[in-house]
Amino acid sequence: MKSVTVIGLGPMGQAMGSAYLDNGYEVTVWNRTPTRADALVARGAKRAESVEAALTANTLVVLSLTDYDAMDAILAQAPPTALAGRTLVNLTSDTPDRARQAAVWLAERGAVQITGGVQVPPPGIGTPDAMTYYSGPKDSIEAHRPALEVLTGIDYLGEDQGLAALYYQIGIDMFWTAMAGYLHGQAVAEANGISAEVFLPHAVRTLELRYFLEFYAPRITAGNHEGDVDRISMGVASLEHVLHTTQAAGVDGSLPAAVLKTFRQGVTAGHGQDSLTSLIGVLKAS
């Protein structure tokens, strides 16, 4: 029978455990707070009484934890022999360097790591368009492809264990920055009596950035930061208007002020008449 262990039963781990049960897997689960396993156990999952029992129950182990410090603390509860012969699909978020270090540490104990970065929230697990960044040994990924594809599609990036973590963190950088901008804008909207539902279609149109990304990406790659379409000096003026509108609404202006500061750094660096894409060089230099 197909089988898997899931360690870490936050919302993502719960969704993964459910997906495996839905697909006929024998699922063993473990969580630091044992009651988090109750719903899955009620559906037929097996509750491991220890980390060692969770690891040794199956050769394929999925980790869904807060960070690698949590992973280290959990795996330290089991003897090294419990890791031997296991493949750990590490979907825990952390830096690329931590992913590489963990892979070495696990290899020293006879285990193989597959590093992953899930690109969807928990409700997206098991849906057709869901994807996960993966990196690490390709043969291990291919060996466990059916089990991995229960959760999401596979976006394989290469053998370097840090690549999946790197791509994931770049995407999350963009996500949190964009969502913070949405929430700040909505705070200004609400301060002016405009509800989130009323502004929703306008927010969706504003945050549809595909045109801009597809326009700028080739220019960035080519090193073309010509100010023929936009200029940083124009951005400074626009952001000043945003900041004044924010302040007039009585909303904290620290977020647009931080963006304005970056644009002003671009002007100071001599890029006032260049495209906003020249800010990449400013950000890298800092």
Automatic annotation (TrEMBL):
Residues 160-284 form the NADPH-dependent reductive aminase-like C-terminal domain. Residues 4-152 form the 6-phosphogluconate dehydrogenase NADP-binding domain. The keyword Oxidoreductase applies. Keywords: Oxidoreductase. Belongs to the HIBADH-related family. GO terms for molecular function: NADP binding; oxidoreductase activity. It comes from Nonomuraea jiangxiensis. Gene3D superfamilies: N-(1-d-carboxylethyl)-l-norvaline Dehydrogenase, domain 2, NAD(P)-binding Rossmann-like Domain. This is 3-hydroxyisobutyrate dehydrogenase. The lineage of its organism: Bacteria, Bacillati, Actinomycetota, Actinomycetes, Streptosporangiales. The keyword Oxidoreductase applies.
